[in-house]
Amino acid sequence: MKFDPNIIVQGTFIKRYKRFFVDIKLADGHVLTAHCPNTGSMKGLLIEGAECVLTKSDNPKRKLQYTWQFINLGSTDQPLWISINTHLDNALVEEALDSKIIQNINQYPSINREVKISDYSRCDFYLTGSDHEPPCFLEVKHVHMKIDGIAAFPDSVTTRGQKHLTELMNVKKDGLRAVIIYVVNRNDTTAFRPAHEYDPDYAALFKESTSCGVEHYAYQCDITGNSIHITDSLPVLHT
User: What pLDDT was estimated at residue 106?
Assistant: First the structure.
C-alpha cells in the first residue's frame, strides 16, 4: 500500500486527546488538528516531538481534512516508522493474501470481508474454495507495542478481543478453520506474544484457543514515510 505523495503532509506530534483528535505541528509552525484512526491506548507511541505522516483528504463532508498515519520513533537518519492507523490492517492482509505472502492460508481462492460469525458480530474475513481445507474465519489484530524486543498484543484490556477468541473457538468446534493474524505495524521485533501484563484474560483465552485448534500467526510490516506492506512472518510464542 502506497500513498500518493501529493496528499502526504509531515509534522511533529504534540498531543492526542478525546481518542480521535491529534494536534500536529507543521514545519512552518502552524498547528493543525487531524483525525486519529486508533481508539486504543497507543501505549509507547505518543512521544511529543516525534515526526509524523498525515494524509490530506479533499472530501468536503469530512470534519477533519487530515488523517494521522505513521509516527517515527527512530531518528531522521535511521527512522523507525510505526503505523497507528488500525483501519489499514484489513486492506494490508487482503493485499498479502492476494500476493500469497501469507503462506499459512494461501490456498483459498475466495476472500469475503465482514462475514457474520455469530448472532452479534462479524469476522474480518471468510475464506472459501479450498480443495483441501474447510472454510476459514479469519480475524485481524493491529499490533504496535514492543516489550523487550517482542511484539505484544493487546496494550490494554480488550473485551472485544476476548469475544473474538471465544467466537473463533466456537466455529473451530463446528469443524471450520479459525485463524487470527496479528499485523505487527513495525519492523524491529523478533517474535510475537500475548501481552499478559495488560490483559491476563486475553492471554488465558489465547492459550485456551490454541489448545482448541485456533491458529495464531504474526506478520510484520515494512513501513516508509509513504508506504506500508506486510513482509515477513514472526514466530508466535505461546507461553
Answer: 83
Q: Which of 192, 179, 188 lies closest to 221 in space, CA to CA?
A: 188
Kindly state whether residues 127 and 164 are assigned to the same domain.
yes
Residue 201 to residue 34: CA distance in whole angstroms: 34
Contact 21, 36 (CB under 8 A): yes
Average pLDDT of span 159-184: 97
Closest CA relative to residue 136, chosen from 126, 121, 146: 126
Instruction: Residue 158: give the domain boundaries.
Output: 86-234
Dihedral sign from CA coordinates of 18, 19, 20, 25: positive
Residue 220 located in a structural domain: yes
Buried b (16+ CB within 10 A) or exposed e, 220-235: bbebeebebebeebbe
The tens digit of pLDDT for each residue in 64-111 reads: 999 999 999 999 899 999 999 999 999 999 999 999 999 889 889 999
- Give residues with Cβ within 8 angstroms of 204, minimum separation 6: none
